[in-house]
Specification:
- Strand 8 and strand 9 form a beta hairpin.
- The chain is globular.
- 55% of the residues are buried.
- The chain has a domain of 225 residues: Dipeptide-binding Protein, Domain 3 (Dipeptide-binding Protein, domain 3, Roll), CATH 3.10.105.
- The chain contains 19 helices and 21 strands.
- By secondary structure, it is an alpha+beta fold.
Length: 636
């Protein structure tokens, strides 16, 4: 049998994710300089010891382009065992959950994919440290980039049907200090566990059942052999792959042992965490630090470079910190107290590079693209009229936001895809005239549209957002711009958890400002935009099928799911995406550059994001520490 099977079609991005960190990095010996955006595509500059300089002012009619990371990583070195890696798991997106069980709620937990494992993972041998076919530093993960993990091989005979052969010889880790681990006693993971985990993930109240009730109501799994299962998902197969088979969201389809679920009911208590992964969860202090300890009997082997064939993991311990204050985060990196952090804004990144020119880093467009949207399903509200929605986007000076708010360290983005989503993204210059108009800043044209819609003097509205500085700056900027056309905005600041609850309950009427993971348009948010998910802020195409402009191309895409991904991408790029953009359901704002940093003593790593920007820490199973180099810097 083949190692894994791809049915025709490739180069297409799918993945989930919920939520929230993308800061990528690459590791040349000298720190690369992020490029200054120009009327052409903004790209990082060639590596140079000099500190990156801000971009020059952007022309009034900016061109937007795809970010390219061109710096090659250094050669892999001979790994050494031992040591500790300290990393930070907090980002401005606020995706920190203490719970470990997405079968119960929207919880994913720190480092869950280091304790538990999923069916698939990104194929590291084809990444930036391997053949270079895919650059996982960008957060762009086309379907062919995925390789086997707990699943050894698979095939898709038709859209929505997944025949998967499970890997034999994978055992749950045995931590003698854990009662739950002793209960499982290091037994082999099997088909019964796979089926139990599906049922657990889709039970009422789970994060998956909340976001994808339609998909789950039509999805089933059955054992089709001693070591094989078949998933059937005839409705919304893209969503089914992401939320059920692959399991992108908040801990995804992490595999739990059935004994633990049967005895304790769920995995919310960290002391009950038992998985097949490279580490044990041995301590957790809420809001402070999580300790992961090496699983000495982990099944995985190194698959690249001088260490190929070595038993993983290399390090003895991981410390995941919850450092929220930006000045503390940068100070921790500068002094070597933290070995890795991600989602640092450009201002803090530039300051850090000045004081630590030896530190490794690389830029990328923030995966959680800022968007603002209001409900369109309330009759009589301004936003039910497409002219009002278009007017407010035309009243948004994208060039000014890119140039003044981000000092050029941002990419002007065309919704509903991210510039890094190369298969589906369309620049404003390539878009239809109706889309191009949305990116030509004109208060006069905006006032004309508002008057045509019956609001010659504008109106008052509200905008909810969370308290992070990233969104507050955007909210204030939008309020100032829209005031010029008579739209008065009251900004309502909510804590992240509160705002999330408001979105889930749909207890808002006006604007909500937040981030949307547009680098995964097919697998995840594409369904949320067209179904009853929490990312469908404007509440479009509800009930499902009520908007033919969305539903017809959406269903056409489903007919190609995972059997002809090039064709599916074409439908998204030429039909679904343009329609959503022209209707101005969402105002996609410039996406800022964000940065990942890691210390020079962290080896076997070149800035890979793994398959989850939110909990993308699987690279830590391959990483090792040059303890001599670290001691020379820290004195420890």
């Amino acid at each position: 049998m083949k190692r894994w099977k791809l049915i025709p079609g490739k180069n297409f991005l799918v993945l989930l994710v919920v939520g929230v960190l993308l800061l990528v990095s690459c590791g040349p010996k000298a720190a690369p300089t992020p490029a200054a955006p120009t009327p052409a595509a903004p790209t990082p500059a060639a590596p140079t010891p000099a500190v990156p300089t801000p971009a020059a002012p952007v022309a009034p009619a900016p061109k937007v382009g795809i970010l390219e990371l061109t710096v090659s990583p250094p050669p892999l070195e001979t790994p050494k065992y031992g040591g500790t890696i300290n990393y930070n798991i907090w980002g401005p997106s606020g995706m920190v959950h203490s719970g470990l069980d997405p079968g119960v709620a929207n919880t994913g937990g720190w480092g869950t994919n280091l304790v538990f494992e999923q069916y698939w993972t990104l194929d590291r041998t084809r990444g930036v440290t391997g053949t270079g076919e895919f650059d996982y530093r960008t957060g762009y993960f086309p379907y062919p980039a995925f390789g086997p993990n707990l699943v050894e091989s698979w095939e898709v005979p038709k859209p929505g049907v997944w025949n998967m052969n499970l890997r034999k010889g994978v055992h749950f880790g045995l931590d003698p200090t854990s009662e739950a681990s002793r209960l499982v006693n290091g037994r082999e993971w099997d088909v019964e566990d796979a089926i139990m985990n599906f049922k657990h993930r889709v039970q009422p109240g789970s994060w998956t059942s909340y976001n994808q009730p339609r998909t789950l109501a039509n999805t089933s799994v059955e054992q089709t052999g001693p070591w094989s299962v078949t998933f059937n998902m005839p409705v919304d197969p893209f969503a089914g792959w992401c939320w059920v088979v692959y399991g992108c969201a908040c801990g995804g389809h992490n595999q739990f042992p059935r004994e633990v679920i049967q005895k304790y009911g769920n995995m919310l208590n960290w002391k009950n965490a038992v998985g097949t992964g490279p580490f044990f969860l041995t301590d957790h202090v809420e809001g402070s630090v999580t300790t992961l300890t090496k699983n000495p009997s982990y099944w995985g082997k190194d698959n690249l470079g001088p260490g190929k064939g070595n038993q993983l993991p290399y390090v003895d311990q991981l410390k995941g910190y919850n450092i929220r204050d930006m000045s503390t985060r940068t100070a921790s990196l500068r002094t070597g107290k933290i070995d890795w952090d991600t989602e640092l804004p450009w201002e803090d990144a530039m300051t850090l590079v000045k004081t630590r020119p030896d530190i490794k880093y690389s830029p990328s467009v923030w995966y959680s693209v800022p968007v603002v949207s209001a409900r369109t399903d309330i009759p009589g509200k301004p936003f039910a009229d497409v002219r009002v929605r278009r007017a407010l986007q035309i009243a948004t000076d994208m060039t000014s936001i890119q140039r003044d708010l981000y000092q050029g360290y941002a990419v002007i983005n065309t919704f509903p895809a991210s510039p890094v989503s190369k298969d589906v993204w369309v620049s404003a210059e390539q878009a239809s005239e109706k889309v191009q108009e949305l990116y030509r800043y004109s208060p006069e044209r905006a006032k004309q549209l508002l008057a045509e819609a019956g609001y010659p003097n504008g109106f008052k509205t509200t905008m909810m957002t969370d308290s992070s500085s990233v969104y507050m700056d955007i909210a204030q900027t939008l309020a100032s711009m829209w005031a010029k056309v008579g739209v008065q905005v009251e900004i309502q600041v909510k804590e992240g958890a509160v705002l999330s609850g408001i979105r889930r309950a749909v207890s808002y009427e006006d604007f909500v400002l937040g981030g949307v993971g547009l680098i995964f348009p097919f697998g995840w948010n594409q369904t949320n935009f067209t179904r009853d998910g929490s990312s469908n802020i404007p509440r479009v195409n509800l009930p499902a099928g009520s908007d033919p402009g969305i539903e017809v191309p959406y269903q056409e895409m489903q007919s190609y799911a995972f059997v002809d991904m090039d064709k599916a991408a074409e439908v998204y790029r030429t039909k679904l995406g343009p329609y959503m953009a022209e209707q101005a359901y969402f105002i996609g704002l410039p996406a800022p550059y964000m940065y990942t940093f890691w210390q020079p003593w962290v080896k076997n790593y070149a800035g890979e994001l793994d398959q989850s920007p939110i909990y993308g820490t699987q690279w830590l199973r391959f990483a090792w520490v040059d303890q001599d180099l670290k001691a020379k810097f820290t004195g420890k």
